[in-house]
Amino acid sequence: MLSKRSGPVNQKVFPIAREGYPFILGSAFAMAIVAVLGLYELALFFLAVTFFVSSFFRDPERVIPEEKGALVSPADGKVLGVSVVQESEFAAEKMLKVSIFMSIFNVHVNRIPENGRVTDVAYYPGKFFSANLDKASRDNERNAVSMEIGRGRKLIVVQVAGLIARRIICKIRMGDRLSRGERFGIICFGSRLDVYLPPETVPAVSAGDKVLAGTSVLGHLL
């Protein structure tokens, strides 16, 4: 199977998404202050927090499959379910839905499943139920990115906030042309992605599978 890197190789030993810098610097600053005050146990706590936050915002390079018709995962995590839905709040037509749960230990940088053009970006305010619950798809805060991926086919990626996640970041706009595996956003601290694929997609994953953003193939277009 042909593959390519997601961009120039990052030579950093531990690459970090820029969205994490304020959190990392904030916890490191707090650690320095309490250490100066002689509160060493509290300083150790903030040191642990700094390491955790740095790990959470890691942004490793990925090798992107070039196989024709392959639709890659937009997120790291565990597949919660694969099902055909007749309609949704994002599309009136039948589509294949794949739900992926990201724990706080997964990489949270989101990537584009396939080459295409962004036709809509819609934000929906909501609640913050645990992202592994089915009702999270319907009731939680979410951001839906709709794309046209050729031959009139539609693809939708929905970033869903979780119990802890309180910030969805999406860097793209309507009209943008994006490539398979390209980074487009991040959700902070545990969350979920629902992916709506064309109905003729042949699924390559099932519930319980572990996937990696930009690398794992969710399905193939006929």
Overview of this protein structure:
This protein is 17% helix and 35% strand. It has 222 residues and is an alpha+beta fold. The chain folds into two domains: 39 residues; 152 residues, Glucose Permease (Domain IIA) (Distorted Sandwich). An eight-stranded antiparallel β-sheet has the order 11-7-8-9-13-5-4-15, with no helix packed on it. The chain has a three-stranded antiparallel β-sheet with strand order 3-16-14, with no helix packed on it. Strands 6-12-10 form a three-stranded antiparallel β-sheet, with no helix packed on it. About 3% of the residues have low confidence.
Order of neighbouring strands in the sheet with most strands: 11-7-8-9-13-5-4-15
What's the overall average pLDDT, rounded? 86
Order of helices and strands: EHHEEEEEEHEEEEEEEEE
State the distance separating the first and last CA atoms: 17 Å
Shape: elongated
> Which CATH-level-2 architecture of the largest domain?
Distorted Sandwich
